[in-house]
Design brief:
The complex is a heterodimer of chains A (316) and B (1024). By secondary structure, chain A is an alpha/beta fold. Helices cover 32% and strands 18% of the residues of chain A. The radius of gyration of chain A is 21 Å and the shape is globular. With 1024 residues, chain B is mainly β. Among the domains of chain B are: 123 residues, no CATH class; 137 residues, Methylamine Dehydrogenase, Chain H (7 Propeller); 162 residues, Lipocalin; 103 residues, 7 Propeller (Methylamine Dehydrogenase, Chain H). Chain B is built from 3 helices and 86 strands. In chain B, a hairpin with a 2-residue loop joins strand 55 and strand 56. The chains are: A alpha/beta (316), B mainly beta (1024). The interface between A and B is large, with 69 and 105 residues. Chain B: One of its GO terms (cellular component) is cytoplasm. Chain B: InterPro entries: tRNA_Anticodon_Mtase-Reg, WD40/YVTN_repeat-like_dom_sf, WD40_repeat_CS, WD40_repeat_dom_sf, WD40_rpt. Chain B: It is found in: Cytoplasm. Chain B: This is Rtt10 protein.
Amino acid sequence: MGKSSKDKRDLYYRKAKEEGFRARSAYKLLQLNEEFHFLDDEHNLTKVVDLCAAPGSWSQVLSRKMFAEARDVAPEDKKLVAVDLQPMSPIDNVTTLQADITHPKTLARILDIFGNEKADFVCSDGAPDVTGLHDLDEYVQQQLIMSALQLTTCVLKPRGTFVAKIFRGRDIDMLYSQLGYLFDRVVCAKPRSSRGTSLEAFIVCLGYNPPADWEPHLDVNRSIEEFFSGCAMSRLQIADDAERLPAWTDGQRSIAEFMSCGGLQSFDSDATYHYDDEVLASLSDKASLDPVQSPTNPPYKKALELKRSGKLTRAV
Amino acid sequence: MSGELKDIAHYGPALCVKFSETYPQYTFVAMGPFMQVYNYKTGELINRARVFSANKVHGFNFSKDGAMCVLYGSKSIAFCKTQDLLTREDFSKDEKMFAEWITDAAFSFTGEQVYILTCYNLVVVTDLEGNIQARRNLKNERSILYSGSIKVLSEERVLINAGTVFGGVLIWDLLKQEKIHNLTGHEGSIFYVVVSNNGKYVASCSDDRSIRLWDMESGKQLSIGWGHTARIWNLKFFNNDSQLISVSEDCTCRIWDVVAESGATSLVMKNIYETHLIKNVWGVDVNETEALAVTSGNDGRVKLIDLKQTSRVGDEVRSFNITNLPSNSPLSIEKGEIFKGFYWFNFGLVAITSLGNILKFTEATGTWEILMRDERLVSYSLTHGISTASGNVALFANNKCDLLLLNFSKDGQTIKSKNSLHLDNLSKSCNTMITAYQDEYCLVTVESPNPRDKFAVLQLNVDTLEIVHEFNFAKPDNFVSSCLAVYQQYLIVGGRFGAVAIFDMRNTDADAYVMRQLCPGDTTTSIEYIEERGADILLSVTNRDGFYNFTKVNLDKLASREGIAHEIIHSNKVMKGFLEGAFYNESGEYITYGFKSSLFYMYNEKNCYEIASEVCGGAHRQWKLCDLGDGQGYMLVYIKAAELYMRKIYTAAFPETLESGLHGREIRDISIMPERLPWQYSPENGYLFVTGSEDTTVRLGKYSPETGAVVNYWMERRHVSGLQRLRFISDSLVVSCSAREELFLWTVNTEFQSNPYMHIRQTLPTQSTHPDLRIMDFDVLFNAAGTGDFALATVYSDSSIKVWWYSNASNGFIELWSNRYQTCCILNTSFVVLQGRIFLLIAATDGYLSLYDISREVDILHATEDTRTVRFVNEAFGAIASTSGPAFTLRVHKSGIKTMDVARTKAGAATVRVVTGGDDNAISLTQFNCSASGELSGTVCSMVSDAASSTVTSTQLLPGATQVLSTSVDQRVRLWDITPDNQLSLRASKYTTNADTGCCDIVQTENSHHSLLIAGVGLSVWKC
């Protein structure tokens, strides 16, 4: 997250700074919770997995809810695991794993940390790099959700909750339809802190309830399609013994219930707020505290350096 | 009532493009779900075939013999005869599907099988019927791929080249199912991998913005190609693997040489072409026979690039050093003598040196000679020239009022006449210019820096170079001449500070008519006469600081000296750099030229692409652009590092685009001019329309509702942030708005033949310096008196609401009323007249509709019988800063109301129907009532909560207000009936190929049909 003046004017960014969150996305989870209260019953929040967790703002929220604000359940009975391919700086009470969520070893490590108990809550705020090809970006995002869901089906206890970031594009109704086979209730939730101009929303899946005769099994050599085969949700079977490519048909679609989260009194992320210059000046002092998580090294760092040193100018 | 939705034409991202050796005259282009085939020599579209029902075609490959084609995109795949792509309209019933995303598909060496590579690094082998014959993969390598390609080298050797998301490039042998290399070195996701045709090299590109060349044998990295400033999407080897072409998000296409010398192989960048707008070039191919490249991009453009632009004829580039000029007899050039000026004629170049030597270069012989020496022109001289039917005149001048004119024969062999003269009536001269005049004359202007001196104009006979007339005008105050044009007896002179002065040669006593600051910039660089219409003439004026405009001058007013005779009808700014001149070419396209730092450019302003560019010298460059004549093209002469360069820019050997494309990013709003234009401008019998995009530009174009043909005229670059809304508020006025409180009132002018024109008539005053403060929407009510005045309501992202009065006579906005809703962003507004009272309806991100009673607080605005006009009682008044809340509010949506349309009310109406669409996927029909005493009430009559599977972005009432058309991000267009009991009932729903479907506009055509323009990332023409 940068420190441009635009960010300074973003109220959620300022609030995140003031309250010690690594990113403004913390408020998205908090506002989802205002509506669904999935983080409010500490007896049903003892084993939690945060997937694609870096830089860690959701883990921070979860840590506060599970530990700092908890009263009844002893801390040693609770486990919070954050998984990401990227390294993450430590957070109180969070076990961070730098690992691939699609790998069976990762699953084994989580179950080990949980003492083979199942999770109450699994979430993922992950998003891939967007290319600008809308259909590819939507597909990759759905694959990321399905990868998270694979792991989730292996660790989530019945009636547990799964929350993930989605982009409401062309085929989102196909995802809703699939999730409907695994959960009692599927809601598309839009927190007020998520910009209205963005396609971002969150899928809140309540009451994990997989088909009774289906046993999830992670295997690196099986595709996501294969993983979910046998569970009624798989949309298209090209089973291993299929002989022909089937003719094209549109997939099964259903529209999920929509819910807006975060009260109307909360900040509107599309609105422009005015401050006088003094407020902004004092902010810039405060903002000289760097973001808790230092910005990651982008893959194009070298290209930026070359550009800055004038080596990418048009010479031919 | 309309029942059926029909799509007629689609323009949008083109993801893949290829030439075919079997069909050497064609270019194949994947655009949306279609395959479009063009004859690249004529630009003609041969066929458009629907390939898939909904998915986009991402790529296609031909079999080795070219007879078959495999097309894929998303999870769809199809096989067909290449021949059928030239004729058949629809292949979608042959569409087959796959479980996973298809990354590439290719024919086997023999063409009997198809290999299909998925994004999970699995290859399925099928026959041409789609019968699966084998599945192949690499054990434990199934992470998702952003890219991958299949290279069929022989029957036995098929390579799978997979680009992973973690920077690795996996090359594996398909038949052996064995890994050959895992090439590491890139950072970030790999976006393309390709193997050279001889199998020796691998080239890859990634998020790190580099191209890497690898040795297939050893797996060693041979070279890194830096240069692209954004992500690179596609690569292709050509010319026997000795060259590589790359395309990128930075909108450029680059050519690289694969140089193998002294044991090392490296990538060396050879050329850069600016090809597409704003973002993302996806597809690229090269036709080696023609030396022609083709690229396709997100802007929907299909661009042809002549790889031999500087070598096709052979004489495109020439350079000379003054110390070593080829000649038949020795030239006496002294040490330190340099070129001071030059002009190109059909026979060659005439130049002058710092010692006053006049040189001639004859193109036919390739030799130079010294013609004469003029002592007066030592050290300081200006050079100009003209070519007319009567002769080729070179003009040299110094700063002491001395001139030398030479008239060359057509072949340049003889000097037909010469005039060496001195102007006695001027104390000094600072600028001398020449222009052709009538058939046999030319005009030479001589300007003195002394303000008391006259502005001298000589009329000379071109053939004899004798002075036939001398005009002496009083020089306007603060006027420094810089360019020249002539129309009839009017001498039109451009100057500094954006000024243009018109001198009447039939009335030399009269002061010049001076138009000051026509552009915001400084030096006027060119003036072109375009056309006349009645007593009006149209001039094109350019300014070095990048501005250009079209100015209408009324000759009657000019002659009578009464009032203002000129009016700007078009204004714009070039994309980047300095503007030295502009003109219409023979196809009626406006061509601009100038410099971007050290780069000379010529740019097609109509279709927005660079025609040519040349790296020239720095700030004090010497250069001239001259016409090659006969429509052949242009000659750029310049001096760089003491060398004289002559660069011919020939008229393109091929069409420059096969599709010109639209915006590079999503279209935020679209509006059709209500009046149909039967004849003016191509396409015939169509409508003008404007689009506003996230790319910050506004485009003016025309389309035909019947054929779907779309022509662009202008791309206006005056907004500095992405557009929010724009609309034709009348047949000649457009309002557009965006962030930074920008709201522009544009005039659209359709009275000239050359083009429709548009100009910002006025901008709305701003009140804040907050860069993020966006004007989200607006509405207008015109003055019933027909004065062209109107009331304007604006709503803002900081929750403020304003009502203004626009006075046409004074061309100004006055604020009447302001208020603030809450703190949330307001998204939509509309004036509503009920029971003779004016209300302002707003819709915000909180899902509420609210009505403000404007009549109660603004007593100078009165509703009329016609509910879309007002009367304005022009009394003294002050702006009212209201703090009263809305008269009525109603929650309609769970989340932001993205779109709103209000049914037109009848005179004296007590109720109004409002249709809205939200971020909550819902569409609703709401009715508001107003009692005779002004009491408001409202109910949601119909609420369809699952109207779409994602955000509803536009809901429009069809004329008559009994049907609603909606668009949404799920890429569906839906037509709803409003039943007599005010319920919304779905009548038709159809898939649209525009991603991020954001807006639409409707116009009623003949036979009560409706024509629709639907836009997002791309534009579609529909009817219903």
